[in-house]
Amino acid sequence: MTERPAQRTPNRQLAALIAEAGFSNAGLARRVDQLGLEHGLDLRYDKTSVTRWLRGQQPRGTTPALIAEVFTRRLGRRLTAQDLGLDACAPVYAGLEFAATPEEAVDIVSGLWRKDSGSHAELRKIAFTSAGLVVPSRDWLIGRADEKVARAEPPARVPAQGRSSARTPGPSELGTRRRGTAERGPGQRVTDGDIAALRSVGELFRTLDDAYGGGHARQALVRYLEHECEPMLRGTYGEQTGRRLFAAAAELTRLAGWTSYDIAAHGLAQRYFVQALRLAQAAGDRAYGAYVLVTMSRQAVYLGHGREAVQLARVAQQGAGGSAPPVVQALLHAAEARGHGVLGEVRACTAALVRAERALEGARTGDEVPHWARRFDEAQLADEFGHCHRDLQQFRAAAQHAERSLQLRAPGHARSRLLCRVVLATARLGLGELDQACQLAAEAAGQAAEMRSVRAVEYVRDFERRLEPYRDAAPVRTYRDKVAAYG
After folding, report:
1. Which of 200, 297, 443, 475 could pair with 435 in a Cys bridge, judged by C-beta atoms 3.0 to 4.6 Å apart?
2. Where is this region: Disordered (predicted)?
3. What is the reported pTM?
């Protein structure tokens, strides 16, 4: 006697959401296919596919997450596969969630740290998605402040074997501690010294990043977050200490994203930025949240998503408000200018640059400036002008501002100087000064060979693509010989 196949249960949750969204079956299938193309997937669903889902068939692979994202975009609220009556899968949007609570934010970001510090190489291959910028930035802008972040001491507590020292560990020690040495125990109280250590570690890694590239100590930073920062976030602390702890965790997480961006792990970087944004909200620090959005805007510029870059910068300006210090205002307007520059919008770009310049001119000695904004000075503003004028093909202005930035920028900011030198080389090339352009680019190529920065290498390669029309000229042959010698 043959068994009859099990009856599938009609998916009423999906049917209700289709009706709410106003989709036809064919329309839903088309949107899922389009979203799949953003992720390099050739799905080819049709109205018959949707009919099967409504009858209870479960789509395979990452499709449930794609369907959920289609409804998220349409209805303006975050929906999961389970909300649609579909089986959970490994979602393509994992890590892009803007958590509802601080506790959920800790769970999401610590999951990223653990996976990234292990042998999950595929995590560093996740694609960047411009669509993944919309919901987190909106939720940050309109979201209410978290009423409570404090964590009380658990009722039953196992005595800790020891306390982690508040001293700043050296690069060789970071992320290498193991349980049973001097590691923090679960539920241990967070102290001022702990937070001071987090901030000192951040300064150390920022220095390493700008001097040697994001790939130099990125993994050590991620392991430090996993083994030191996560236990603190799961420790015990009052409201004031908790806010400061979340602020320090947001800075380190943004830096993990920045170093990931520098090695071209763009999807992973995007996820770190979103989680840094959520941690900044838990810290109650709107200005730093705006800075994270600026970082996201810069990544969008680098990847050619000018419209999204402008939108992120404007959301940052709106969220920070008019009371932000002049230096922060300058930073936010400069970010918007870069987006307009990529889009070739001359008037909008120029207007944003003027606002940035006026804001920085309004800064006064003694202003209370967040430590993360102090690096935005005249050298950085000149760098922003140079990039914008290069993108607008205004090469004489680009050269003037790039030269000024290089004159003002301290030698320790090696990667920033390298990128600016390539901008200057590109401007010289645009002005027809081939010999000088090649000399400048050769210097930059030599420096890039000593760094672990994909971004630095890509800047040099972009210059080389611009050299193609002159490939037979003597300065170009000399340039290529020099670059070949660098290996």
Report:
1. 475
2. 151-192
3. 0.80
